[in-house]
């Protein structure tokens, strides 16, 4: 479901990918307001990849996005706790689950390799979800959809009527593709 908040992110991404991002200057007043409180309307769960910064790819200022990033964009207990803070305390009404092309964690799972010992368990979890995907691109789509469905099933997401959307960020073009429900 595309609401006004997501439409705003789509517009911001169009500015970003076309090289016309909004010149951002922060004033003392901005910092004074940041010092007191925050009012993001949307939370973004995505990967830690250094080529992906939600505030930049959606052309949003500080204070506008509540961002949760970890390698592979996992929805584990810690991530769910962060999301619950965004929804139940900060009153974010929308959550974006965003995978990306060339994701190292998904690529490792697709190739059945383990980058580090500590990453073994998460990578095996991705392997189980993606099965025998024919390509990394397909595997990223499957993994992102899985995380999206899990996010939709969280009790506080349902109880607060939060809009959840899934998207794939294309590292090579800067484009964010929002995936519509079937
Ligand atoms: Zn990644």
CATH class: Alpha Beta
**What is the beta-strand fraction?**
15-25%
Mean pLDDT: 95
Percent of residues in helices comes to: 40-55%
DSSP E strands, number: 5
Total of helices: 8
- What is the makeup of the main sheet? 5 strands, mixed
> How many domains comprise the coordinates?
1
Write the CATH architecture name: 3-Layer(aba) Sandwich
Based on secondary structure, the structural category is alpha/beta
Give a verbal description of the structure.
The protein has 182 residues and is α/β, with parallel strands linked by helices. The chain has a single domain, classed as Carbonic anhydrase (Beta-carbonic Anhydrase, Chain A). The protein has helices at 4-17, 28-36, 54-57, 77-89, 104-110, 120-130, 136-152, 155-159, and strands at residues 42-46, 65-69, 94-100, 163-169, 176-179. A hairpin with a 6-residue loop joins strand 4 and strand 5 (176-179). The mean pLDDT is 95. Zinc ion binds at residues 47, 49, 72, 100, 103-105.
């Amino acid at each position: 479901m595309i609401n006004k908040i997501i439409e705003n992110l789509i517009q911001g991404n169009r500015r970003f990918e076309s090289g016309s991002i909004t010149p951002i200057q922060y004033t003392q007043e901005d910092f004074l307001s940041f010092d007191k409180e925050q009012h993001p309307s949307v939370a973004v769960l995505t990967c830690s990849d250094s080529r992906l910064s939600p505030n930049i790819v959606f052309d949003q200022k500080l204070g506008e996005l509540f961002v949760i990033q970890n390698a592979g964009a996992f929805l584990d207990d810690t991530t769910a706790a962060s999301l619950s803070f965004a929804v139940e305390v900060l009153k974010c009404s929308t959550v974006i689950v965003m995978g990306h092309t060339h994701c190292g964690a998904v690529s490792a799972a697709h190739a059945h390799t383990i980058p580090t010992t500590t990453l073994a368990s998460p990578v095996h979890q991705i392997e189980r979800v993606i099965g025998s995907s024919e390509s990394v691109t397909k595997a990223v789509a499957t993994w992102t959809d899985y995380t999206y469905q899990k996010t939709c099933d969280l009790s506080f997401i349902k109880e607060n009527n939060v809009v959840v959307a899934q998207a794939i960020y294309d590292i090579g073009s800067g484009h964010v593709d929002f995936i519509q429900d079937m």
